[in-house]
Amino acid sequence: MHDSADLILQTHQLSKEFKGFTAVSKVDLSVVRGSIHALIGPNGAGKTTCFNLLTKFLEPTSGAILFNGQDITGERPAQIARRGIIRSFQISAVFPHLTPLENVRLGLQRALGTSYHFWKSEKTLAPLNDRAIALLAEVGLNDVANELTVNLPYGRKRALEIATTLAMDPELMLLDEPTQGMGHEDVHRVAELIKRVSAGRTILMVEHNMSVVSTIADTITVLQRGAVLAEGPYTEVSKNPMVMEAYMGTTNDPLQGAH
Predict the structure, then answer these.
(1) 128-158 pLDDT, tens digit each
(2) Which position among 73, 205, 239, 250 has the lowest Cβ density within 10 Å, counted as fewest Cβ atoms?
(3) DSSP 54-113
């Protein structure tokens, strides 16, 4: 067991019911500080609902959420974000008709609490430019800093989304299916990117792609019908007969092909 000081996020018996349907059932999650933790499971397993509970976009029916040992179950989404739990939202997080530089700069302004000062002169934004360029470099987008985001290929838009999330200076970064809809090359690139930006940060991700999970995740939690089926390192979890059964309907082949 981990010392509780090592745990950045814990849930105790977290549950969510919708009109008699239990979407998340008594989930105990322990995310170790500095790790990449993946939440996986078949469709309808409750992964996204779980994320929505953690960011308080949904109220849990019962159970508790602890962040750095403090109970945050009753807090609102804005309070959760201020604590440093930042979730990347698909592409909607990015403004298509701004440049990557402007997008990241907006993230930095948000983190500073000046997000609505759009009327500020360019001069006051200059100090943010250096930091924005550094973040774009971190995700390999410095060469397209001044292009229009709308013209970027899909994989690079997802990289930009990670950069704007990083701009918010997350202590815990929630990534929602970061490689969804990507071709093989982009998947590999974004997996590498997540691994790179995870240094000194904690990442909790929902991910379907098993090759990504097996390569970069330290710990994997498998959900099935809203409940935790198994948890541990990939090598251990992928050999779990219950997990094989859930994914494949067979006990022959582990998670291979369960994309």
Answers:
(1) 899 999 999 999 999 999 999 999 998 899 8
(2) 250
(3) HTTSS--SEEEEEETTEE-TT--HHHHHHTTEEEE-TGGGS-TTS-HHHHHHHHHHHHHT
125 in the same domain as 250: no
Q: Domain check: are 153 and 230 in the same one?
A: no
What pLDDT band is residue 122 in, cutting at 50, 70 and 90? low
- Going from the C-alpha of 112 to that of each of 67, 106, 164, 193, the distances in angstroms are 22, 10, 13, 25
Please check whether residue 120 is in contact with residue 173, taking contact to mean a CB–CB distance below 8 angstroms. Answer: no
117 and 224, same domain (yes or no): no
- List the domain range (segments joined by +) for residue 105: 91-169
The tokens for 94 are 């990015």
Within-domain flag for 2: yes
- Tell me: the pLDDT tens digits for 199-258? 989 999 999 888 899 999 999 999 999 999 999 999 999 999 988 888 766 444 455 544
Same domain for 96 and 24, yes or no, is no
DSSP symbol at 141: -
Same domain membership, residue 45 and residue 29? yes
pTM of the entire predicted model: 0.88
CA distances (Å), origin 138, targets 61, 78, 175, 206: 39, 27, 17, 22
Instruction: Single out the residue of 28, 32, 85 nearest to residue 56, CA to CA.
Output: 85
Same domain, 164 and 208: no
* pLDDT tens sequence across 39-73: 999 888 999 999 999 999 999 999 999 999 999 99
What is the CATH number for 212? 3.40.50.300
